[in-house]
Amino acid sequence: MPELPEVENARQVVEKALDRTISGVDDTDEYVCRPHHPGEIDQALKGGRLVAAHRRGKTMWCDTVTADGDEGPHLGIHLGMGGRIFVTGPTGDASSLYAGGDPHVGGMPKKPGERPDKPEWDRVTITFDDGGALRLFDKRRLGRVHLEPAVEALGPDAAEITRDEFRARVGKGIVAIKAKLLDQSVLAGVGNLLADETLWQAKLRPSRPAGELSTDELDDLRRVLRRATRAAIAQGGVHTGEVIPYRKKDATCPRCGAPMERGVVGGRTTWWCSAEQSD
DNA sequence: AACAATGTTCAGTC
DNA sequence: GGACTGAACATTGT
């Protein structure tokens, strides 16, 4: 499910939908499109175009222009726990399909490149006058599409944050370091898996109070985080992390062989090495 | 059947 | 107001 790396992948797919005239938006799912009412997003975008696709952390948004060429509203897209993006080209058929997000959550695996045959999981569809479309496909329905997302509420992107920003934002307070990494207003883009992977690589106990970390530990943590994030983008998702396959019962640490331990930190299921991450 | 799931938000308490 | 906690949200898979 989508964390920063999967969302970056999805953003690149959204770019396939740029500069194509919007003929309509199916925004009838009032939960996914909250707080809008059906028809509002359709009304705001119809006749216009998406002209740029941005991302900060796990939030994507598109700049738009209206039919007259004026600046239009920003369209926010969030994949939630299991959303994916599918874009079809002008022919609208499967041969022109681009898929974005985490392939692991797509529903039924089909022939390579084909989209799962679950039209009821299309939560929002933007149709273009060339016959193609962009859809948010999300079986869990926790994804979101709405106008003017509050991007300012997010901290710096986890792949871009500077050393000084990281020290100042992450290295304070009494909350567990893992909870800090997961706080999107502190730092945007880290999800449960990337947090476990990063802390394992840095050999830090997830429950350690964030303010307790030394400057050296914070600097190292940031280096590890950026490396793990970029590696996940390059390799196609957070599930390619080294410790991810060992987040399960009776597993042992792939580095030292000690038992992996499970608990709840920051409200999320957490796995760590009982030997190397115990300080 | 009960529980967990890679996310966000909101009510409530210091 | 900020820091923090825990439950709720909608749905599927085990």
How is this structure best described in words?
This protein has 279 residues and is of the alpha+beta class. The chain has two domains: 4-151, Alpha-Beta Barrel (N-terminal domain of MutM-like DNA repair proteins); 155-242, Helicase, Ruva Protein, domain 3, CATH 1.10.8. It is built from six helices and eleven strands. The chain has helices at residues 4-14, 40-45, 163-170, 177-182, 192-202, 215-235; strands at residues 22-26, 49-56, 59-65, 75-78, 84-88, 97-101, 122-128, 133-137, 144-147, 260-265, 268-273. The strands form three sheets. It has a five-stranded antiparallel sheet. The protein is elongated and about 60 Å long. The chain binds a DNA duplex (14 and 14 nucleotides) through residues 1-3, 6, 31, 58, 78-82, 102, 104-105, 107, 138-144, 173-175, 179, 182, 184, 191-194, 237-239, 244, 267-269.
How big is the Rg?
20 Å
Unreliable segments (pLDDT under 50, ≥5 consecutive)?
none
Find the CATH topology of the largest domain: N-terminal domain of MutM-like DNA repair proteins
Task: Tell me the CATH superfamily of the largest domain.
Answer: MutM-like, N-terminal
**Count of distinct strands:** 11
Give the tally of structural domains. Answer: 2
CATH class categorisation of the largest domain:
Alpha Beta
Using the alpha-carbon principal axes, give the shape: elongated
Order of strands across the main sheet: 1-7-8-5-6
Keywords:
279 residues; alpha+beta; N-terminal domain of MutM-like DNA repair proteins; Helicase, Ruva Protein, domain 3; five-stranded antiparallel sheet; four-stranded antiparallel sheet; 6 helices; 11 strands; 23% helix; elongated; DNA-binding
